């Protein structure tokens, strides 16, 4: 049996994952519950774990890999209220989710066979790390969507900027003092990379506006995006586009 009081934690994290992943293998073991998955277009990879110590109870007979329809799981969790206690029971062919406060509601989801071996995280080394307020990044991406479907991220010394272009016009956002840039090599090199705007918007959507988002960048290479959801950390890897 597994129990979780912080239902919003699971709601937000599954909602963030379901933006890209339709079905995935959730690993239940001594570390907690985790998922590593790649979206069908192979543009986004997600890496997420809820540590065992965040659960009120975490008792499983043996480590289990449970294939779940993430969209259906998201639908069930949406029905939860903030005061609900979530209880989960893993069985051979299904997972039972119980939401209980003033009333008790029991949902059963069938386990599915999700093909694919264990996913390894990219071993890429990044040249720079940008710390930026989530609200500023979210609004800047909305600004960029006025004109185009892609966005160019630039690091020049300690400056971070974002550009969006389209047939009708362009946008440039300079973060000024609202972003902190660290170069891993110690050299203030220029970094330029282009990404899908819609994918990046969906990745950062669940970040609370007052939180910090970490962008790890390299010239014309995939980007790593990470931020906190409650007491957990969610990580995404976003493939780059040709400039």
Short description:
This protein is α+β, with helices and mostly antiparallel strands and 243 residues long.
Describe this structure in words.
It is a single chain. By secondary structure, this protein is of the alpha+beta class. The chain has 2 domains: 109 residues, Box (Proliferating Cell Nuclear Antigen); 111 residues, DNA Polymerase III, Chain A, domain 2. Helices cover 16% and strands 46% of the residues. It contains 4 helices and 18 strands. Strands 6-2-3-4-18-17-16-10-14 form a 9-stranded antiparallel sheet. A 5-stranded antiparallel sheet has the order 5-1-7-8-9, with helices on one face. A hairpin with a 2-residue loop joins strand 17 and strand 18. Helix 1 runs antiparallel to helix 2 and helix 3 packs antiparallel against helix 4. The longest helix is centred in the first third of the chain and has 12 residues. The model has no long low-confidence stretch (mean pLDDT 94).
Which strand order does the major sheet show?
Answer: 6-2-3-4-18-17-16-10-14
Task: Give a short account of the largest sheet.
Answer: 9 strands, antiparallel
Task: Report the CATH topology name of the largest domain.
Answer: DNA Polymerase III, Chain A, domain 2
| CATH superfamily descriptor of the largest domain | DNA Polymerase III, subunit A, domain 2
Amino-to-carboxy terminus distance: 50 Å
The CATH architecture term of the largest domain is Roll
What proportion strand?
Answer: over 45%
The poorly predicted ranges are none
Mean pLDDT: 94
Order of helices and strands: EHEEEEEHEEEEHEEEEEHEEE
């Amino acid at each position: 049996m597994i129990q979780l009081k912080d239902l919003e934690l699971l709601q937000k994290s599954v909602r963030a994952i379901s933006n890209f992943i339709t079905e995935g293998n959730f690993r239940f073991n001594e570390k907690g519950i985790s998922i590593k998955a790649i979206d069908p277009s192979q543009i986004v990879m997600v890496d997420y774990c809820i540590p065992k110590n965040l659960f009120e109870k975490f008792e499983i007979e043996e480590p289990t890999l449970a294939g779940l329809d993430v969209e259906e799981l998201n639908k069930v969790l949406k029905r939860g209220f903030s005061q609900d206690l979530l209880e989960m029971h893993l069985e051979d062919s299904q997972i039972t989710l119980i939401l209980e406060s003033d009333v008790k509601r029991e949902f059963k989801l069938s386990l599915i066979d999700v093909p694919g071996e264990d996913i390894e995280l990219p071993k890429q080394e990044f040249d720079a790390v940008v710390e930026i307020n989530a609200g500023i990044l979210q609004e800047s991406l909305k600004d960029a969507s006025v004109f185009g479907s892609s966005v160019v991220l630039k690091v020049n010394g300690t400056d971070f900027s974002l550009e969006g272009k389209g047939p009708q016009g362009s946008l440039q956002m300079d973060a000024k003092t609202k972003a902190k840039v660290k170069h891993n090599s110690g050299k203030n090199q220029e970094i330029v990379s282009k990404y899908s705007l819609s994918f990046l918007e969906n990745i950062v959507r669940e970040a609370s506006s007052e939180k910090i988002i970490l962008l790890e960048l390299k010239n014309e290479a995939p980007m790593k995006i990470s931020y906190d959801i409650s007491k957990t950390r969610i990580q995404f890897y976003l493939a780059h586009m040709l400039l």
